[in-house]
Amino acid sequence: MAWIGLDLGTQSVRAVLADAKGAVLARATRPLTGRRDGVRHEQNPQDWLDAVDAVLAEVTLARPEGIAICSTSGTFLLTDRAGRPVTPALMYDDARAAARRDQIVDADPDRWSTSMQPTWALPKILELVADGYDLADHRVVHSADFVAAHLVGHPVATDTSHALKTGYDLNAEAWPAAFDKLGLPLTAFPEVVRPGAELGRTPDGVPVRAGMTDGCAAQIAAGALAPGAWNSVLGTTLVLKGVSNELLTDPTGAVYSHRHPDGGWLPGGASSTGAGVLTELLPGADLAALDRAARANGPVDAVSYPLTKTGERFPFVAPQAGRFTLGSTPDDLHVYTAVLQGVAFIERLAFEHLETLGADPVRSVSLTGGATRGGYWNQLRADVLGVPVELPAVPDPAYGMAVLAASGGTDLTGTARRMVRVDHVLEPRGNRLDDLYGDFVAELDHRGYRA
């Protein structure tokens, strides 16, 4: 018995075939390209289908027991009623409709004044309507839904996770009544089901199950599905996900929550800081060599706030935030280490913010994402956080979707406990860089970013 997980990423489509004990039987990947024009970021949905067909052909050694799909949170397109695309895919970070946020907040201030972010899908849907697309004749389809429909041969429901940034009310489990004030017909929006629900079957009879967004998929791959266990995904940017029994309410709007498939909530947030800034600050540098040098040299008396673009989303919301450095960075090694320390400090600040909202104290943190290849960075994060960090054996969102598919929509936590393995644990060594951290937070406050 084996299950397939698919991950529709920004730069590639990845597939993993895993068995009931969590062993990876096969992997495949195909590249994706997109188009960026200023604040606009689009992809061709047909490219997803071509890549998915290719990776499935490569990993399907025998008839799998199920398939689940994750994709970038907030990526969507419009289709006609038959499911054919009529727009490109508007990507998760496309900011063309930022000015529409105020219109959304005005429609329901109590609901959206702190929870709606300008790059979410809902503002972009309003922008497409303003551009002349009549939603009476079209459907809003998230990227994972579009691929699932391709696999089963008909339009499908979406899941609560992908629906969140389209405005879905996770408390009421319904599309909000405020859509009427925005002129958005409910007929344009898909039925919503819980992750793991069967969406349909392929021509070969394989169940295709509702998935989750990529951050949640990485959390499943890390097995961080109980209160006190957190997953930190560090790639181009930093994303944190955890578990809470009760919904955490954040008056600043930095934290949002998905529904836990087993009940309860998955709170977290996405920062605009991350490893992506290294390629800009150190073009052409051998990052692996710098990581080895940083391990030998240790911490430096400098820290950079490593924003990948102007504006911060988490652990505070500051559209005006800009990159800065405290201390001297006279060479590449200091630049590199200052960035690493800055990301670790933002990570620590994020956990402190979550705990002020009522989240369980951090017991352990699973690290996933491309930046986990930096061994010194992993240890530094353990030191700064002051808790053990775990490195999962298969830190891949596609693997998380294979686990979700294997759960069949019931007892995801138990399924992950059987399938997910920890490869290594790094214990904190005691140096949390408290003085430099205090200076860093004070500078954020001085600039008004946390006001």
Report on this structure.
The protein has 2 domains: 2-211, 2-Layer Sandwich (Nucleotidyltransferase, domain 5), CATH 3.30.420; 223-446, ATPase, nucleotide binding domain (Nucleotidyltransferase, domain 5), CATH 3.30.420. The chain is 32% helix and 21% strand. It has 14 helices and 22 strands. It has helices spanning 45-59, 101-107, 109-112, 121-130, 143-152, 160-163, 214-222, 276-281, 287-297, 332-356, 375-385, 397-407, 412-419, 434-446, and strands spanning 2-8, 12-19, 24-31, 35-37, 40-43, 67-71, 76-79, 89-90, 139-142, 158-159, 192-193, 198-201, 207-209, 229-234, 238-241, 256-259, 265-270, 303-305, 324-326, 364-368, 389-392, 422-426. Helix 11 links the parallel strand 20 (364-368) and strand 21. Helix 7 (214-222) packs across helix 12 (397-407). The protein is globular and about 60 Å long. The model has no long low-confidence stretch (mean pLDDT 95). Keywords: Kinase, Transferase. Belongs to the FGGY kinase family.
Sheet of most strands? 7 strands, mixed
Task: Provide the structure class.
Answer: alpha+beta
Strand content: 15-25%
The figure for the number of domains is 2
The largest sheet has its strands arranged as: 16-17-15-14-20-21-22
Q: CATH H-level name of the largest domain... which superfamily?
A: ATPase, nucleotide binding domain
CATH class call of the largest domain: Alpha Beta
Radius of gyration: 21 Å
**What is the averaged pLDDT score?**
95
GO molecular function: kinase activity
Pfam families: FGGY_C, FGGY_N
InterPro entries: ATPase_NBD (IPR043129), Carb_kinase_FGGY (IPR000577), FGGY_C (IPR018485), FGGY_Carb_Kinase (IPR050406), FGGY_N (IPR018484)
Keywords: Kinase, Transferase
